[in-house]
Fold this protein.
Amino acid sequence: MAANDNSDISNAEFAQFQKLIYKIAGISLADTKKVLLVGRLGRRLRELKLSSFAEYYRLVASGNAAQELQTMVDLLTTNETYFFREEAHFQFLAKTIAADHPPFSPFKVWSAASSTGEEIYTIAFVLAETFGLDAPWSVTGSDISTTVLGTAERGHYLLERTRGLPDSYLRKYCLKGVRSQEGGFMIAPEIKRHTRFLQVNLNRALPAVGKFHVIFLRNVMIYFDAETKRQVVARLVEQLHPGGYFIVGHAESLHGLSDTLHAVQPTIYRLPS
């Protein structure tokens, strides 16, 4: 019978999964996350008709099940997000960063832990309002999870997911679903054409993503230990234009993690020009 509660995984088995997800994604899975792991992976065990977490661990650690390993990463790294989460960052983006950018000059933003895409499209809405839809701006979204990237790239959400999204933006930049799509909405094509999506593991050498004027890395570093945070930040700073901004979540800080970035205000940092 497949595992279905916390008693079905031993401390030793949980420790194996902790080491594996740290090795792959740099995520320090706290001991308090055992219930989360059991809940998310337990369903997968039942789908695969496996009898134990030990059996599932042997599968994903074998080196012969790359797709299942990615599925495990997807299940353990997916986090809640919503439009205009931590709204002050988007006000700063519009009123300070974008407002000071030379008109008609390319402007590039990277949402480096973009989850299901609400952050990407929030940034895009702000830039559309600031620069217009014909200006040369773009938003790159990346995540380690292929599942959430698929959701982000489709840009199709249930209407119940409009939390934080102003009605004016919903009307202006989204299309309401009809017939088989009723109850949902799509991000409009004129917004989507300014976006691109990449699978990126921040815990490894970065692919050729280009240089950016702003990098958002919000609400993901809380899962990293101090050394992993330093390494991730150092990699990302290399992708900033001089004078570029680096924005982290309201529960996060770069204090002691980077000598390169200077604090502008809490959670907002800047690379000197």
About this structure: The first helix runs from residue 11 to 25.
